[in-house]
Amino acid sequence: MDNEQPHGKITCLATFAQSKIAKAANGHVVPVDTLADGFVCPRSGVAFPRLYRVSYPNLDLPPGKSTPVFDGSFFSRFQLSAAELYTNSDFPGVPAVRKEAFQLLAEDDRCWLEVFAFGCPQEASGFTRAALRLVSDPDLTMTVQGPSGYYGLLVRTDKPMLYGMITYHASALREIPALGREMMCTFTTTVDRQGVVSQTDPLAHLEEF
User: Fold this and answer.
1) Helix count (H) and strand count (E) of the chain?
2) 189 in Cβ contact with 166 (< 8 Å)
3) Is residue 94 located within the same domain as residue 141?
4) Do 26 and 117 reside in the same domain of the chain?
5) What are phi and psi of 132, to 5 degrees?
6) In whole angstroms, what is the distance from residue 135 CA to residue 139 CA?
7) Which residue has the higher pLDDT, 34 or 13?
8) CA separation (Å) from 25 to 19, 119, 151, 183, 191?
9) Tens of pLDDT, residues 115-150
10) Which of 23, 41, 47, 118 could join 170 in a cystine, given CB atoms 3.0 to 4.6 angstroms apart?
């Protein structure tokens, strides 16, 4: 029970912080089913792919055996597609991979997600190299090509105050009247566990807490 108390305290503080972020950014609740086919950035029009929680069976290799066996547990990965990244289920007697599309993070997800849209494969490749400076595990990053571009996913376990949030980053050309020309603008939108959508980058608010 003692081990659960810090987590519970962090969850309460995160909920408080995120409600303040949403209020400051005039956030509003959206019906979850509107996100079922993937988030669409309201300012850039960029459509993101669906998010998936994919659970893979854990394997164990008993002494003297050459074929791994299922140990009764699963490990999960957040993904931008339902494609299977591991072949664990190919072994005899090992259960199938479990795949679930989701729109919001669950209460027990101790992480926050950043999803990026890119205009070309070179940008996606650069994202992967840069992301590995933020996370130690390559499995916490992913890039995919979708019907409308390239996308990157970063699973972050730092910044506990942001646990449960999904932040989307997209870019689009916009006319800047003061400059008399178009410029590439970046738009950041965040969705929290309650389905509140805020047009803000939560990192910009962390220093307030």
Assistant:
1) 2, 10
2) no
3) no
4) yes
5) -70, -10
6) 9
7) 34
8) 10, 27, 25, 24, 12
9) 999 988 899 889 988 888 878 787 788 889 876 789
10) 41
Is the domain of 66 the same as that of 91? Answer: yes
Domain enclosing residue 115, as ranges: 4-48+104-208
Give me the phi and psi of 204, to 5 degrees please. -70, -15
Total structural domains in the chain?
A: 2
In this prediction, residues 66-92 reach a mean pLDDT of 96
Q: pLDDT value at position 5?
A: 46
Between strands 98-102 and 51-60, the pairing is antiparallel
Domain ends where: 80, 100, 120? 100
The whole-number pLDDT of residue 111 equals 95
Tokens of 138: 């390559």
For the full predicted model, state whether its pTM sits above 0.70.
yes
DSSP assignment letter at 80: S
pLDDT value for 2? 37
Asked if 108 and 96 sit in the same domain, the reply is no
Nearest to 142 by CA among 131, 53, 185: 131
What torsion do the CA atoms of 115, 116, 121, 127 make, to the nearest 10 degrees? -90
